[in-house]
Amino acid sequence: MSVTIGVDVGGTKIAAGAVSDEGEMLAYVRKPTPAGDPDSVVRVITECVAELEKSYEVVSIGIGAAGFVDAARKSVVFAPNLAWRNEPLAVRVSERTGRTVVVENDANAAAWAEFKFGAAAGTKSAIIVTVGTGIGGGVIINDELLRGSHGFATEIGHIGLVPEGKLCGCGLKGCWEAYASGNALVRTAREFATESPTVAARLLELAGGTPEGISGIMVTQAAQEGDPLSIKCFEQIGHYMGKGMADLAAVLDPEMFVLAGGVCEAGDLLLDPTRRSLADSLTASSFRPAIPVGVATLGNEAGIIGAADLARR
């Protein structure tokens, strides 16, 4: 049986899978990432491919990598968590495997999977927003993945949402992810707990008595229990999430938004205020269809499935 292999290269693990034309994961391999050594990363990717080749006829290989991938989809220009600087990854893996190799940004790959086989299947234009420690995602317009002139497009977490606002991890102020990410949720909860410890009693109980001990999981747990302050934290994050999505909609006019990532496990605690804020902030909302907001369905397999399908194309 012929398949395409998708590889998801992260800072701690390299995961690879044999993927059918229909986007089904048929086999899976996972190995630790030797993050400090580019040669070893290529070796481990090759080992994963060789293991999958024992059972399947491999047509091509797609690699999803966290970082800036060039317009030709061959080199990783910069990766924040790996020792890649202008790394010719496609050529190096192709030389070792004898297969055609395509490299794509990992968020783009996961977004493509949700567009083709997941929550946005059947649409022609969708924006997938990954809400984790930061905000990432991908944009598909008229069945084409938006990559930009250099391949660096859709770093959507760093659109300027609040002028001269909170400092973002990228060094700029007011970025979207500084207000609507997992880190933003935790920071908001800690600020509330510092200012009003009595009101934050449940959160502080879970955190061992100190605001610094509050985690995103704790905020979610307390909100699910009905804790008013924790619910307020999600409402604030959802407010900014919807505003950022409305800004994207004003430029790109998607058919659908899909939220992915760990923070989305909170479900309606995040979705409800996000949907309200998007509707309230959408330009000319009275004269255009509402934009639905769904939740990703492919989970951790999305990056592998998307990379494989992009290589197949």
Task: Map the helices and strands.
Elements: E1 2-9, E2 13-19, E3 25-32, H1 38-53, E4 57-65, E5 68-69, E6 76-78, E7 85-87, H2 89-97, E8 100-105, H3 106-117, E9 126-131, E10 135-141, E11 144-145, H4 177-180, H5 182-195, H6 201-206, H7 216-225, H8 228-252, E12 256-260, H9 268-281, E13 293-295, H10 302-312
Parallel strand pairs: 1-4, 4-8, 9-12, 12-13
Antiparallel strand pairs: 1-2, 2-3, 5-6, 6-7, 9-10, 10-11
Give the helix tally.
Answer: 10
Approximate helicity band: 25-40%
Rounded to an integer in angstroms, the radius of gyration calculated over CA atoms is 20 Å
The CATH topology annotation of the largest domain reads as Nucleotidyltransferase, domain 5
Q: Indicate the low-confidence ranges by residue numbers.
A: none
**Which CATH architecture of the largest domain would you pick?**
2-Layer Sandwich
For the largest sheet, list the strands in their spatial order. Answer: 3-2-1-4-8
Largest sheet: 5 strands, mixed
CATH homologous superfamily classification of the largest domain: ATPase, nucleotide binding domain
CATH C-level name of the largest domain: Alpha Beta
User: Helices and strands: which structural class?
Assistant: alpha/beta
- What is the terminal-to-terminal distance? 18 Å
Please give the number of β-strands: 13
Number of domains: 2
Protein name: Glucokinase
GO molecular function, one term: ATP binding
Keywords: ATP-binding, Kinase, Nucleotide-binding, Transferase
InterPro entries: ATPase_NBD, ROK, ROK_cs, ROK_glcA
